[in-house]
Amino acid sequence: MALEHESDSALARAVRVAGSQSAFGRLVKKRQSTVREWLLADRLPGEYVLAIELATKIPKEELRPDLYVPVAAAPSMGSGS
Q1: Which of 51, 64, 54, 55 shows the shortest CA–CA distance to 11?
Q2: How far apart are CA 16 and CA 23, in angstroms?
Q3: CA 54 – CA 47 distance, rounded (Å)
Q4: Rounded distance, CA 60 to CA 65, Å?
Q5: CATH of the domain at 41
Q6: Are 4 and 39 in contact (CB under 8 A)?
Q7: pLDDT tens digits along 1-52
Q8: How far apart are CA 36 and CA 32, in angstroms?
Q9: pLDDT tens digits for 44-55?
Q10: Is 54 among the domain residues?
Q11: Which domain, by its residues, includes 45?
Q12: Is 34 a domain residue?
């Protein structure tokens, strides 16, 4: 069974949405073997996050929560009266 079917990580979901590791690789102009390495590490390089979000509709905050803070968790910019 392919790695993307063994995990429910955002990256694995994005690969499933793309259809396969090869199809996902075509989205980011990388080989299937590179996508497999990313799945093994469960880490999408930051430079691909926005393109993958656009192509798969998986939010960037889920793909790389260390880089993109969910809006609900972002600190408030209020006046602090």
Answers
A1: 64
A2: 9
A3: 13
A4: 7
A5: 1.10.260.40
A6: yes
A7: 688 888 899 999 999 999 999 999 999 999 999 999 999 999 999 999 999 9
A8: 6
A9: 999 999 999 999
A10: yes
A11: 3-62
A12: yes
Q: Give a yes or no: residue 21 inside a domain.
A: yes
What is the reported pTM? 0.83
DSSP state at residue 47: G
Tokens of 19: 């259809």
| The one-letter amino acid at 45 | P
How is residue 50 written in tokens? 């926005």
- 43 Cα distance to chain centroid: 8
The position carrying tokens 């889920």 is: 62
Please check whether residue 31 lies inside any domain of the structure: yes
Number of domains the chain is built from? 1
Q: Where are the alpha helices (DSSP H) in 19-57?
A: 21-28, 32-41, 49-56
